[in-house]
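Progress report, Aim 2. The chain analyzed during this reporting quarter is listed below.
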Amino acid sequence: MQPELPPPGHDRRDLTRVVFAVLFLALLIGGTLWVLRPFLGPLIWAVTVVVATWGLMLRAQALLWGKRFLAVTVMTLALLLLLVVPLTAALVTIVENADRMAEWARLAGEFNLPDAPPRWLVELPLVGDLLAGAWASLNALGVRDLLPRLSPYAGDLTRWFVAQVGGFGLVAFQFLVTVAIAGVLYATGEEAATLVRRFAHRLGGDRGESVVTLTGGAIRGVAMGVGATAVVQSVLAGLGLWAAGVPFTGLLTAVAFMLCIAQIGPAPVLVGAAVWAFFTDATGWGVGLLVWAAIVGTLDNVLRPMFIRLGADLPFLLIFAGVVGGLLSFGLVGIFVGPVVLAVAWTLLEAWMADGEDPA
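Predicted structure tokens for the chain:
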């Protein structure tokens, strides 16, 4: 007996309806993201901060007689003081001194290396003769003609750096929105986590829920590894600059903080301050700043892996590529978006490869 054929013109798959349904969903998702576009950056920052500090919020709630609203108030005020105020001060300092930084870049490009090294350099114990010979070798290689050629690139780099910081008004507004969203997430964290897990389970089952757990660990690790390390290094660098009497300590500390966030470290700022100290005949402070640069500049090799492994055991190269690539692609918010995306992709790739292996 042959199966009954469907009537003419009828398609049990109804391909047209499926296509239009997918298009409608795509338009709906795109429209939603377009409407929420001004708040995506603050939302990502808020989620990062809340996930990284959720344990502290629970401890605060336990100390405050189990009252969630008291813990939320304390954490929100703490974020306002510890996150918004220092970052806003750093951004204001950089934006206000943007012209001065461009002028410094121009002067650095117009600097001519003297034929003979300064006397303090030759009189340095043990390394004076070696440095004098290196000075003569640099002159022979034509460094004097190279610096003016690099001047336009230095100016472009300075303008790009300032452009990444953005306008002060917009950044301040985003920080305030970030704190407000973080307060809401602190108050409803369990409900939000349950919603995300349900959505992930609907998409990928148990594997989807494991991706959510991985993402939380990656966020905690990156926030602790990148943020805490940058704060420690920039504070120590600022203390060294202040002790040596270097001018514009606040501006240089802000630049050091941004360099630490970008995974470059505070060494360029401290070495530049040491050069300034040498040229002002403060040889002792110059040597001290060089030693301090070596100590503070390598401190991240100890702090960053320790902080990152508190949240997720991720390769350093993965974190470095995510931070730098995210910064160049998405701005400051990409510092956290980049490593999290790469961490999730890397773990999914490892899990997929492990599924194909025979058990031992």
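The radius of gyration is 27 Å. The chain has 14 helices and no strands. These observations will guide the mutagenesis work planned for the next reporting period.
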